[in-house]
Amino acid sequence: MAGIEVREGESFESFMRRFRRACEKAGVLRDYKRHEYYEKPSEKRKRKLIEARRKAWRRRKKENY
């Protein structure tokens, strides 16, 4: 979980903005959605394989530029 402290004189809106950014950076929401339902081991392997393919594709695409 993202640990954010309120700064002195900081408005609630700016605090919430920093908190949301920290949660997004830490991947809290993504992790929550992933654990919302049970994922079978076969589905987990399939998801990881797809993620690895995407990552490799992005890496190759970046190297070509």
From TrEMBL:
Question: Record's Gene3D superfamilies?
Answer: Ribosomal protein S8 (1.20.5.1150)
Q: Which residues form a coiled coil?
A: none
- Provide the leader sequence positions: none
Q: Which UniProt keywords apply?
A: Ribonucleoprotein, Ribosomal protein
Record carries keyword Amino-acid biosynthesis: no
Record-level GO cellular component terms: ribonucleoprotein complex; ribosome
The UniProt record lists the keyword Transmembrane: no
Cited InterPro entries: Ribosomal_bS21, Ribosomal_bS21_sf
> Which GO biological process categories is it annotated with?
translation
Q: Which GO terms describe its molecular function?
A: structural constituent of ribosome
Q: Which HAMAP family match?
A: Ribosomal_bS21 (MF_00358)
Per the record, the similarity remark reads: Belongs to the bacterial ribosomal protein bS21 family.
What NCBIfam families is this protein classified in? S21p
Instruction: Tell me what this protein is called.
Output: Small ribosomal subunit protein bS21
| Organism of derivation | candidate division WOR-3 bacterium
> Which classification does the entry list for the species?
Bacteria, Bacteria division WOR-3
